[in-house]
Give the backbone structure.
Amino acid sequence: NAGVTQTPKFRVLKTGQSMTLLCAQDMNHEYMYWYRQDPGMGLRLIHYSVGEGTTAKGEVPDGYNVSRLKKQNFLLGLESAAPSQTSVYFCASSGRTANSPLHFGNGTRLTVT
Amino acid sequence: KQEVTQIPAALSVPEGENLVLNCSFTDSAIYNLQWFRQDPGKGLTSLLLIQSSQREQTSGRLNASLDKSSGRSTLYIAASQPGDSATYLCAVGKTQGGSEKLVFGKGMKLTVNP
């Protein structure tokens, strides 16, 4: 049982380049989330989705776009990377009930130079 | 705005101690509270989830309690072991704009010394 899988694990980008982070879950979860984790800032929600074909903005959405074309996949895109987007990115998923815990992937460490 | 606080930010203890980790939140209108563990370079692993109607949950040496009226939760770790060393985060679930979201504390780094 793979749970939540994120690819890639590491990536270095130059300012202005674009990339897509991939997240896949095999638990048939309705909800999926993208967070970033920075020292001293904790976990901050970027975008989330409550079902296939839906997306919504979280706390820090600027500079990112997302898509949920299939229930099991949630993609995070950076159109023009900036050094401020250097961070560790986590994808997470959960069921739709209040007793459904959040399951996290192992993260993508992104450096923008 | 919901704020979640974990104090202290770090704790170092000798092996065998019973520990209490604290989490406080400002808005009592939550639907659940979760405790997570994060090991270096890894994602978060869910330890315990307490629904808003519950007072506590237990799993092995871990016990989490919830007092919504005072805006507090505690995670009790019995007979701590070096393998318990990790960062522990709490998160409260709230409904906002018709959807559910988690608000995280910044975590507490625990070191258990042999």
